[in-house]
Amino acid sequence: MSAAELWAQILWPLCKLIGLVSVGLFVGNLIEAMHWTRFMARLANPLTRIGRMCEISAASFSVAFVSGVTANTMLAEAYDQGRLSRRELILTNLFNSLPTYFLHLPSMIFITVPILKSAAVVYLGITVGAALLRTVLILFIGRILLTGLNRCHAMDMPAQEKLVARQVLQKTWSRFRRRIKKIVMITAPIYVGVHFMNKLGMFAVVEHFLAEHMSAMSWLHPKAMGIIVFQLAAEFSAGMAAAGALLDAGSMSVRDVVIALIVGNVLSSPMRAFRHQFPYYAGIFRPKLALELIFCSQGFRVASLIFCGAVYYWMS
């Protein structure tokens, strides 16, 4: 690998990744130092009270509409300090999938609508419905599993101490330095490892295997396989481009294209999650916990997509 390739393929993307995580971590610590979590929690408290979640969960949910990284760093800080149980950490991370989804929704709209036109409305409607379904279920599950933890809402919060700007920055910087070292030491080797796994074709082998063993999906339109294979072998936008071309040619109906995109989304989720989520999750949480959070969030996401897709399939 030449110096130019090393910079373009590993060093620069890794710098951007660590930079984004660092900004999220710093902002999270700054919010905590200035006690803004109290105000942010009030915005989501009516909703999180239904699920018996603590105030930090409500604050994280509010922040997730702006930055998923910052929301996760707030949860990691609270968990490390013993202010959040492992069970509630997992449930809150799942609960935050709604604001995280809406955070990326504008870019999805700008990609899908010009390519898929009317099919984009149906596809996005199903994914929005799946996100809302997950939110309702998490509140219901939290209300059952977090029985007794509703005392979190009645906990005495620390007194509002008047801190000057210098004290706030010192407190924020001190906590930031402790965590950023751990993040860099974990995130960098994992990112490099995933890159070389991809370079050596390990992901391609898995994706090729999945693409060749889809005989169980004979109920799909024959040309849907092309969309699914593009989503498995390339990126989400590649599947969209293939779907748009088939729609414009009149080779597939809106219904067939939407179902193909949902199936491709479901099948490509595990590889995409490990490739894109694990490096930064492992920098924020412990690697074992990071894997557990990704497994739960992706499993829950896939299940909700399958359910909403199945409802659309039978009703249409």
From TrEMBL:
Higher taxonomy: Bacteria, Pseudomonadati, Thermodesulfobacteriota, Desulfovibrionia, Desulfovibrionales
Protein known as: Nucleoside recognition
Keywords, sorted A to Z: Membrane, Transmembrane, Transmembrane helix
Alphabetized InterPro entries for the sequence: MJ0871-like
Keyword Transmembrane applies: yes
TM stretches of this protein: 6-31, 94-116, 122-146, 183-205, 225-247, 293-315
